[in-house]
């Protein structure tokens, strides 16, 4: 990887040589600390940071695949393995907060629901904009979603409270609804892109041959 970007790395090192930082430290944001040298990495907020990341990533991919026939594959359709992995991750994330949040008496239910929306739902839905989900997989995810909410709200199956009322009490939509909203939001975002953008070209593209 050293052969790909040594010149660029040397240039970036020269840019940051003898650089220093003076962060604001007072509440009124007016007073600055004494300058101190930056000896590790790049300065906070440096515009070179994403460029350096792209350079290193490009070099790593080039070195990894230049002498092989391996290709990078993209998962665009949910299958049993992906659903099971997602269920395990959600269950683990929910379980880690069981004693410290969900079953802790000193935390308000409203706060617990906000934590659920901030931590658990993103684990459910990460990358869902690009999913092609069958109904049976959405039902499995929604079953776990409702089980978590019932435990959070202290609703047992013996209470005979329907799922719709559980969602209403939590003021949270079902997983199929959240999936639809996320995908519609992403569709609108892609539709508003300029026609020169690759995501829009792929989204509205058609196969030249076949079905």
TrEMBL record:
This is Reverse transcriptase domain-containing protein. Residues 1-31 are annotated as: Disordered. Residues 10-19 have a biased composition (Basic residues). The lineage of its organism: Eukaryota, Metazoa, Chordata, Craniata, Vertebrata.
């Amino acid at each position: 990887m050293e052969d790909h970007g040594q010149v660029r790395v040397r240039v970036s090192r020269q840019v940051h040589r003898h650089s220093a930082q003076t962060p604001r430290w007072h509440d009124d944001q007016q007073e600055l600390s004494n300058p101190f040298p930056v000896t590790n990495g790049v300065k906070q907020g440096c515009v070179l940071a994403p460029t350096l990341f792209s350079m290193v990533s490009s070099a790593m991919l080039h070195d990894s695949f230049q002498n092989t026939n391996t290709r990078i594959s993209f998962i665009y359709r949910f299958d049993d393995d992906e659903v099971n992995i997602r269920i395990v991750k959600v269950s683990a994330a929910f379980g880690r907060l069981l004693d410290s949040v969900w079953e802790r008496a000193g935390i308000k239910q409203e706060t617990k629901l906000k934590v659920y929306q901030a931590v658990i739902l993103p684990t459910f839905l990460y990358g869902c904009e690009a999913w092609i989900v069958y109904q049976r997989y959405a039902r499995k995810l929604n079953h776990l979603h409702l089980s978590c909410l019932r435990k959070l709200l202290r609703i047992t199956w013996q209470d005979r409270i329907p799922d719709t009322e559980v969602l209403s009490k939590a003021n949270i939509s079902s997983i199929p609804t959240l999936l639809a909203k996320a995908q519609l939001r992403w569709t609108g975002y892609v539709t508003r892109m300029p026609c020169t953008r690759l995501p829009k070209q792929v989204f509205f593209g058609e196969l030249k041959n076949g079905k």
